[in-house]
Structures are given as structure tokens and as C-alpha cells.
Design a protein that fits this description.
Blueprint lengths: L2 H24 L7 H15 L1 H30 L1 H11 E3 L4 E3 L25 E8 L4 E7 L5
Antiparallel strand pairs: 1-2, 3-4
Helix pairs in contact: 3-4
Length: about 150
């Protein structure tokens, strides 16, 4: 017999009984609390009732039908130019370097002119003013960092 075979047999004789002993100690049955057992039994009984299956499948059916309706509606609106243009104009205005999302408010409760001229109060010492545009109402100030990043 070689040394390897002797070592394998010795390890088997010592570790296998120890392994079985550890597994027997670890296999102690855990006792759940009566409250937990009662709740689990109630869930299992409820699942066997016919209305559970109806509610479960009816909810899924309603969700699938609603999703199909939304998909068909969106596809129809996006495929017809007469519908697509007003839809997109309502939601987004596209500019050269950004997009602006707007909602249309026709209530007229807002003032007609801007009385106060608001400025940025953050310290802009690390930035240079790139452009400054003023008109009747809006003011657009574009600033760039003085630090060059890769």
C-alpha cells in the first residue's frame, strides 16, 4: 500500500464518523411558533379556494389588456403624422443642444411680466461668462469652468 492510499483510508476512518455526528446535530427539527404555523396554514387553505385563482388570473388579464391597449394607442399615434405632430409638440420642444419638457397651462393665473430680476447666488469665481442674453422676459447666462477637463 502506498502512502497516499494509507492517508486516504485514515482520513476516511476519522472524518466520516465525525461528519455523520455533525450532520445529526445539525438536523434538529426547528419548532415554529404557533402563530407562524397558524398563518401558514391559513395561506395554504386560502390558496386552495377557487376565488384565489380567479383574482390572480383576472388581475393579470386586466393588466395585459391595459398594456395591449396602451401599446396599440401609442403605435397608432406615432405612425400617423397628423396625430404624431401635435402629440410631440404638446410634450417636447426640441432645441439644438437640449430638450425642454413643457406642460401647457392656459389658466392665465401667472403674471404677464417678470417684476424681479433673479441672479445666481452661487459663487461663480471658478467660471467665466461665455454668453449673456437678455430679452423682455427671459435671461440666459451660459458659464464655462476655467478648469480644463479631459
Amino acid at each position: 500500500m502506498s502512502d497516499k492510499e494509507i492517508l486516504t483510508e485514515a482520513i476516511g476512518r476519522t472524518l466520516i464518523p465525525e461528519y455523520h455526528q455533525i450532520m445529526e446535530e445539525a438536523s434538529d427539527d426547528y419548532e415554529f411558533s404557533p402563530r407562524f404555523q397558524k398563518r401558514m396554514d391559513k395561506l395554504i387553505r386560502r390558496r386552495r379556494k377557487p376565488y384565489y385563482r380567479f383574482i390572480n388570473t383576472a388581475g393579470k388579464r386586466v393588466a395585459v389588456i391595459a398594456l395591449a391597449f396602451l401599446t396599440i394607442s401609442f403605435t397608432t399615434v406615432m405612425s400617423v403624422e397628423a396625430l404624431r405632430t401635435p402629440f410631440l409638440d404638446f410634450i417636447m420642444s426640441f432645441f439644438s443642444n437640449h430638450s425642454e419638457v413643457r406642460g401647457i397651462d392656459d389658466s392665465g393665473d401667472y403674471p404677464k411680466t417678470i417684476e424681479n430680476d433673479y441672479v445666481i447666488t452661487y459663487d461663480l469665481s471658478e467660471y467665466n461668462i461665455d454668453s449673456d442674453e437678455r430679452s423682455d422676459n427671459p435671461r440666459s447666462v451660459t458659464v464655462k469652468s476655467i478648469f480644463q477637463f479631459c
